Amino acid sequence: MEGAEEGIERVVDSKDMQQQTKAFDKLTDRVEDHQLDSSRVQEAMASIAASAEADLQAMRLREKELAAVKINAADVDIIANELELDKKVAERTLREHKEFLDISRYHDRSVLLHASN
User: Fold this and answer.
1) What does the DSSP assignment read for 63-97?
2) Where are the transmembrane segments (predicted)?
C-alpha cells in the first residue's frame, strides 16, 4: 500500500510541479515584457533627447546668423516709429528679413531728398 500512496503523491507532486512551472513561466514572461517595455521607453527618451538637442543647436545657429546681420540704429528707429513697434521687435524683424534693410535705406534717402527740396 505504501507503494500506491507514493504513486499518488508523485502524481500530486507532478501536478503541483506543473502548476509551479506555469506560474514561474508567467512570472518570467512578465519580467521579459517589462524589460522590453523599459528598453522601448529608454529608446524613446534617447530619441526625444537627441531631437531636443538638434532643435537647440538649430536655434543657436539661427541666433548666431541673426546676430551677424548688420543693421543701422536709424533703420530700427524708422521701422519702430513708422510701424509703432517696440525697438527690440523692429530690430529682430530687420535681422530676420534682411530685404527690409534695403527698404528702410530707401526710405532714408527719400526723406533726405524731400528735405533738400
Assistant:
1) HHHHHHS---HHHHHHHHHHHT--HHHHHHHHHH-
2) none
Q: How far apart are CA 95 and CA 116, in angstroms?
A: 30
Q: Is the pTM of this model over 0.90?
A: no
* Own/partner pairs, 99-106, CB within 8 angstroms, 24+ separation: 101/71, 101/72, 101/75, 104/72, 104/75, 104/78, 104/79, 105/72, 105/75
Q: Is 37 exposed, middle or buried (0-12, 13-18, 19+ CB in 10 A)?
A: exposed
C-alpha cell at 26: 508567467
- Closest by CA to 80, choosing from 66, 100, 65, 62, is 100
Percent of the chain's residues with pLDDT above 70:
64
Helix, strand and coil in the chain, % to nearest 5: 90, 0, 10
* Secondary structure letter of residue 117 according to DSSP: -
The three cell numbers locating residue 109: 534717402
Query: How far is Cα 71 from Cα 89, in angstroms, rounded to an integer?
Result: 13
